[in-house]
User: Which sequence fits this backbone?
């Protein structure tokens, strides 16, 4: 090979490289060039790639995992209010300023850049911004409207994004109603000239099927303790009209080749979505359920068979289960968010934060998921940690339809890395939040380094 084929821009040696590939293979060193991984193996092999221009990071026993993919976070909104979170605010915590609204393009741009810094400090190298569009142009946060999309486009073109961004478009209100007319207009107006790059892409469409169980706005088969049963948020003259309109939305998006992420929390709305997807042709668009609080056990099997993903937030479970118990009874609350069952069914489960609802700290997300699932329910400690790490790396790459080029530390894939101070397989999930993120590499560039 010519010499320039042998050079590495960056090598990391003397640690534990957890590739999270199918065999869970491990190495001690990794090297990158031109934004890709060019070597995974022993130290000697990596050192052979060093030149005067290479950066060499001595891991000194630390661990490298694939860059974290935060597969559902409202990053711009997070950038506006962090370190406050909605859940802290609800719990009476100090930080959340209800009045925080992004007023101008400059403020939105700054919030996106701040979210990039927050992400980098947590080892996050990809995220999904779930719900930007005209329905939120006058929204309360100012963080989800069309102008946010414009700011992302500009930052992507300027090369200033510090994490890879997948956007879901929204043609209604966040956590609110949508109409079939707005949906059709929005999807037909979508520019087809957006770059489908590795840094910024419109991945699909977000649909709000229903609300949330604590507000009795999730659409359920049974009824709440007060006798109501919720309904769909998609507008229509009656229940069956609403269901037909949701079918029309998902079908249209599917026919135009867009992936659909459906916010659905009630068992009846989840079943309705699954039935709709079942009726579509088999193209591999990987539509997925967002939240899925009350998903039924038999529905999980249908979802797995149909290739429907589940994107859920384990931290919401402990934070709201008392409210769930108050509206639906304690047994329903105990059975909600069935993480072990979803994994056992074979669903490529993605865990996420819905930040700023919860903190975007995935280490806390993993601790919450393990606690909610129950000790031993995901296998032995090592298997549990591997499984949960994959819900933030391998599985979201699948959700992004990008598993051929990201999600594991494999030669040829993008050089997105997270260096942890300790081997995560040697700590319990409850201890993981205490393991610091030391270095974050996105596309071969060091975007964060703990000082
Ligand atoms: Zn959300």
Assistant:
């Amino acid at each position: 090979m010519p010499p320039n084929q042998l050079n590495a821009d960056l090598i990391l040696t003397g640690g534990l490289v957890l590739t999270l590939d199918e065999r869970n293979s491990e190495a001690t060193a990794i090297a990158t060039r031109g934004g890709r991984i060019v070597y995974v193996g022993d130290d000697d092999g990596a050192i052979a790639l060093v030149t005067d221009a290479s950066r060499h990071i001595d891991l000194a026993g630390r661990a490298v995992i694939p860059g974290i993919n935060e597969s559902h976070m409202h990053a711009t909104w997070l950038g506006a209010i962090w370190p406050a979170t909605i859940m802290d605010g609800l719990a009476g915590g100090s930080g959340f300023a209800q009045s925080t609204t992004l007023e101008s393009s400059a403020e939105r741009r700054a919030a996106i850049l701040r979210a990039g810094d927050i992400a980098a400090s947590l080892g996050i190298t990809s995220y999904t911004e779930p719900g930007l569009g005209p329905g939120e142009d006058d929204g309360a946060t100012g963080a989800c409207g069309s102008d946010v999309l414009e700011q992302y486009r500009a930052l992507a073109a300027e090369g200033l994004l510090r994490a890879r961004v997948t956007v879901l478009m929204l043609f209604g209100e966040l956590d609110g109603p949508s109409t079939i007319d707005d949906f059709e207009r929005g999807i037909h107006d979508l520019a087809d000239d957006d770059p489908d790059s590795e840094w910024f892409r419109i991945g699909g469409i977000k649909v709000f099927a229903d609300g949330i169980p604590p507000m009795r706005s999730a659409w359920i088969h049974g009824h709440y303790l007060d006798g109501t049963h919720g309904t769909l948020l998609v507008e229509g003259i009656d229940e069956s009209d609403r269901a037909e309109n949701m079918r029309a939305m998902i079908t249209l998006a599917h026919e135009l080749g867009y992936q659909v992420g459906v916010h659905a929390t009630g068992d009846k709305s989840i079943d309705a979505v699954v039935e709709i997807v079942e009726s579509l042709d088999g193209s591999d668009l990987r539509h997925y359920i967002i939240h899925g609080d009350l998903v039924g056990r038999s529905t999980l099997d249908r979802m797995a068979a149909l290739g429907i993903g589940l994107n859920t937030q384990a931290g919401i479970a402990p934070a709201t289960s008392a409210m769930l118990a108050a509206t639906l009874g304690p047994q329903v609350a105990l059975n909600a968010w069935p993480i072990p069952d979803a994994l056992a069914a074979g669903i490529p489960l993605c865990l996420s934060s819905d930040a700023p609802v919860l903190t975007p700290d995935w280490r806390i997300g993993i601790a919450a998921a393990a606690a909610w699932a129950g000790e031993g329910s995901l296998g032995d400690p090592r298997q549990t940690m591997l499984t949960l790490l994959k819900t933030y790396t391998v599985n979201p790459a699948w959700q992004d339809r990008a598993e051929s080029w990201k999600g594991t530390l494999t030669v040829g894939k993008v050089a997105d890395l997270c260096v942890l101070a300790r081997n995560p397989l040697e700590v319990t999930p409850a201890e993981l939040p205490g393991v610091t993120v030391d270095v974050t590499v996105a596309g071969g560039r060091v975007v964060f380094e703990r000082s």
